[in-house]
Amino acid sequence: MTAAAPLPPFSIGLTGGIGSGKSTVADLFAARGASIVDTDLIAHSLTAPHGAAMPAIVAAFGPAFADAAGALDRARMRSLVFADTGAKARLEAILHPRIRDAALAAAAAATGSYVIYAVPLLIESGTWRERVTRILAVDCPEEVQIARVMARNNLPESQVKAIMAAQVGRQARLDAADDVIENSAGIEALTPQIDRLHNLYLAFSKRTATIPSQRL
Ligand SMILES: Nc1ncnc2c1ncn2[C@@H]1O[C@H](COP(=O)(O)OP(=O)(O)OP(=O)(O)O)[C@@H](O)[C@H]1O
Ligand SMILES: [Mg+2]
């Protein structure tokens, strides 16, 4: 048997389809003392004016992909990667390792009782699954997702469905999840579910902090 590698701290990967309620759920865990590391926010800051990924993006795609402020020209990049899967892979090769490193650094600096990584495409991405101790999926029927995103983003149904078609299906996400929050009713229906999981996660995080790694 090889020597046990240092055990990464207990962490949760929070995922769910568009509009399922990930941000709503993350806020409720944060209010109970969890640290949220939001990979969407990290991706956005990497491509904000003079963000850490901008030099590599300009080197790979050209200066036309940066706007006057030094931020990613999102509309231009979106139309490029929509039409060109090679370009999409090149962009992801720039962004994904940087998102991962920034997320791990944020987690290492976090002061909450445990870390929740919010990763919309956690099931799709492959590598995040191995990086978290438990996967938590927020689930609701697809009609509910569609109605929420249409209302929130003022989008037509066809556009919401197109976004959903690019994400893993509901059943595959449920199959990959260790824990599920059911979010088809009102916000108040979330409270008991989140209280129960928060207590479970607190117990797990205390246990992994005290058990020698060889015993896990
Ligand atoms: N249980 C609920 N009852 C009513 N509205 C809800 C409920 N949960 C979430 N919403 C609303 O639905 C919309 C989508 O929720 P939220 O932003 O939390 O989803 P998300 O999974 O983070 O979406 P995205 O994938 O776009 O980041 C928001 O406008 C939110 O206020
Ligand atoms: Mg969100």
What descriptive keywords fit this protein?
216 residues, Rossmann fold, five-stranded parallel sheet, 11 helices, binds adenosine-5'-triphosphate, binds magnesium ion
- Structural classification: alpha/beta
Q: Determine the mean pLDDT.
A: 92
Low-confidence stretches: none
Amino-to-carboxy terminus distance: 14 Å
CATH class category name of the largest domain: Alpha Beta
The description of the largest β-sheet is: 5 strands, parallel
Tally of domains: 2
Kindly state the number of beta strands: 5
Bound molecules: adenosine-5'-triphosphate, magnesium ion
Structure annotation, total helices: 11
CATH architecture of the largest domain: 3-Layer(aba) Sandwich
CA-based gyration radius: 19 Å
Please tell me what the overall shape is. Answer: globular
CATH topology of the largest domain: Rossmann fold
Work out the strand percent: 5-15%
Subcellular location: Cytoplasm
Main location: cytoplasm
GO molecular function, one term: dephospho-CoA kinase activity
Pathway: Cofactor biosynthesis; coenzyme A biosynthesis; CoA from (R)-pantothenate: step 5/5
